[in-house]
Amino acid sequence: MATEDFRTYDVIVIGAGPVGENVADRTAAAGLSTVIVESELVGGECSYWACEPSKALLRPVLLRADAVHIPGIDPAVRNPLDAKAVLAHRDRMSADWKDDGQVEWLESVGVELLRGHGRLAGEREVSVETPDGETVRLRARHAVALCTGSRAALPTVPGIEDVRPWTSREATAAVAAPRRLAVVGAGVVGIEMATAWQSLGSHVTLLAREAGLLPRMEPFAGELVTERLREAGADVRFGVSVTAVRRVPAGQSDEVRVTLSDGGEVVADEILFATGRAPRSADIGLETVGLGPGEWVATDDSLTVTAVPGDWLYAVGDVNGRALFTHQGKYQARIAGAVIGARSRGERPSSGRWTPHSATADGAAVPGVVFTDPEIATVGLTAAMAESAGRDVEVVDYELGDLAGAQQYRPGYRGRARVVIDRDREVVVGATFVGPGVSELLYSATVAIAGEVPVERLWHAVPAFPTISEVWLRLLEARRDA
């Protein structure tokens, strides 16, 4: 009987986005032979259809929003953006959807690339269907890491299959601004793309079934963004959902008719559904190791899959559902790589919070930026989250526009800062900043929370004047004087 041919490696990584690349980098650096399997472009969603192209679309929008308020700058900045030039910049930032540079980087760190669709095929085994129809069998001595990410989740709406809906991929890769764009969803993708395309010449109608934008953040964040979107000309509607969609045939007008729950109708040229994410786990062989296909793959803080015995299977990044941010997935990747390296040497990974082998920040200090006008920067818990968890917290607010540094940044600056302080431990557990340029405040807040810096110690972290970072001093003063 013929023996099936396997290619054997120490580590197999399925998915070559930023998360998979970082796992492979860490295991290769630990001296482990590593192969990474990818069915699309090396670099993944973030490089070509999410983080990079979306920020390339938004950066000119935010820069112009600041410039129009600054005395002495040419009034021409008030003119509409050159959409063609912005889209060309987006193309450059997305490497024109070519992954040559990413492939070269993998080679430089000693990671082998196998193009094709990878599926688990039992314990420590992976089957890869290559683009030319061959099947390659892989076996791992130590670990298999699932780094397949997430995808846009489309709702069940009558007619949706026929309207050629945009998801985040189409919204970031479109070759021209539609005259009218309907955006469905109150989350980050929806409001970022509404901000970008409204500024690039589309008339945007933003439809949210919730009572406000960004319902998982502090309420003032969504309120300030709503205000600016409406000032920019967008039609923002709350408390409505889409009950049906249909596209009029191209021979007529080729427009999308959107029926709403309140009986109204919106007419658009394109419709973007930004209604959440789902794991890319439906066709990666989870059933061969006793897991349910299409589900989030649960892990412990070492990123080891909890439902599979033997400490060989890892789920890293979006696919585990812990924190759906590229930077957080890369953080997990560094930890998973360290855990795999330790176990390969027969060592027991360190346990407990804030160790090299524990993704503690996933539950305590997850940072995020929403690149709208105004920007939103958040890390840790909101006041509502902390209170629902039974924490005794104190909430301190400050108007960012009262800072000299903010007025230097933009005359008429509007924004707000909030910190959530755990009274029992006297440490900051959450922070939210909303206003132009606040993304630069985020790392200091993340350090304060992850480092569990006592509030009394923060008095000795002196902010430079006049900068927006002076808000830290003003928040401490507001608390002292309350």
Automatic annotation (TrEMBL):
<dbReference type="InterPro" id="IPR050151">
    <property type="entry name" value="Class-I_Pyr_Nuc-Dis_Oxidored"/>
</dbReference>
<dbReference type="InterPro" id="IPR016156">
    <property type="entry name" value="FAD/NAD-linked_Rdtase_dimer_sf"/>
</dbReference>
<feature type="domain" description="FAD/NAD(P)-binding">
    <location>
        <begin position="9"/>
        <end position="323"/>
    </location>
</feature>
<comment type="similarity">
    <text>Belongs to the class-I pyridine nucleotide-disulfide oxidoreductase family.</text>
</comment>
<feature type="domain" description="Pyridine nucleotide-disulphide oxidoreductase dimerisation">
    <location>
        <begin position="366"/>
        <end position="472"/>
    </location>
</feature>
<dbReference type="InterPro" id="IPR036188">
    <property type="entry name" value="FAD/NAD-bd_sf"/>
</dbReference>
<dbReference type="InterPro" id="IPR023753">
    <property type="entry name" value="FAD/NAD-binding_dom"/>
</dbReference>
<keyword id="KW-0274">FAD</keyword>
<dbReference type="Pfam" id="PF07992">
    <property type="entry name" value="Pyr_redox_2"/>
</dbReference>
<dbReference type="InterPro" id="IPR004099">
    <property type="entry name" value="Pyr_nucl-diS_OxRdtase_dimer"/>
</dbReference>
<dbReference type="InterPro" id="IPR001100">
    <property type="entry name" value="Pyr_nuc-diS_OxRdtase"/>
</dbReference>
<keyword id="KW-0285">Flavoprotein</keyword>
<keyword id="KW-0520">NAD</keyword>
<dbReference type="Pfam" id="PF02852">
    <property type="entry name" value="Pyr_redox_dim"/>
</dbReference>
<protein>
    <submittedName>
        <fullName>NAD(P)/FAD-dependent oxidoreductase</fullName>
    </submittedName>
</protein>
